[in-house]
Amino acid sequence: DFVPLHDISVWTPTAGGSEKTVYPRNKKLDNKISLYSGDITKLEIDAIVNAANKTLLGGGGVDGAIHRAAGPMLKQECASLHGCETGEAKITCGYGLPAKYVIHTVGPIAQGGVGDEEKKALRSCYKNSMNAAAKNNARSVAFPCISTGVYGYPPEQAVHKALATVREYLDEHHDKLDRVIFCVFLPTDKELYMKTLPLYFPAE
Ligand code: AR6
């Protein structure tokens, strides 16, 4: 029941959508974005991103799902990495997962509210994860909604940070990645992304 890359549809911007787009169209980015609704552990792509914690030793949420699906070898490799700071990213093999790599990043804890520090850290998560992918020649990468679960970052704010960071990275490095997949798990996140994607990846 794995989902290969060719079954993950490309997100096509619709013309005449929103008036208040944030960026103009960049044709070089056409066909590079996907919105996928479902379990990230099923994606048969180069790399999936894990919303981990600083220990990198597993936890609940998407982290728990990834470790369960990958098997105990993943934890073993993670244990050799000596943790990860907030905003940083570390890459491992995918083991039992259909994805070749897992990129573990640690999102900010936003239960005390979102300030400049949290915004900067969330941006770093996306940026450092894409850099880790590119460095390892992983050309397709899927992101969960980092920090918006247990870590309490408001999804309405996180979606803008995620899309702005990916858009800016791809503007500069469009040759380094073939596909960035936003993997949403909750129907409310799917709606948020459908509403917000046209602002960052408009048709015209
Ligand atoms: N596939 C895709 N997305 C998922 C999946 C899945 N299988 N399962 C959950 N999500 P969270 P955080 C979504 O809490 O907020 C862990 O214990 C979920 O609906 O997993 O960054 C770590 O060890 C939500 O939209 O991550 C850390 O201690 C999103 O993934 C802490 O939680 C992120 O929710 C990290 O908290």
Automatic annotation (TrEMBL):
<protein>
    <recommendedName>
        <fullName>Macro domain-containing protein</fullName>
    </recommendedName>
</protein>
<feature type="domain" description="Macro">
    <location>
        <begin position="20"/>
        <end position="201"/>
    </location>
</feature>
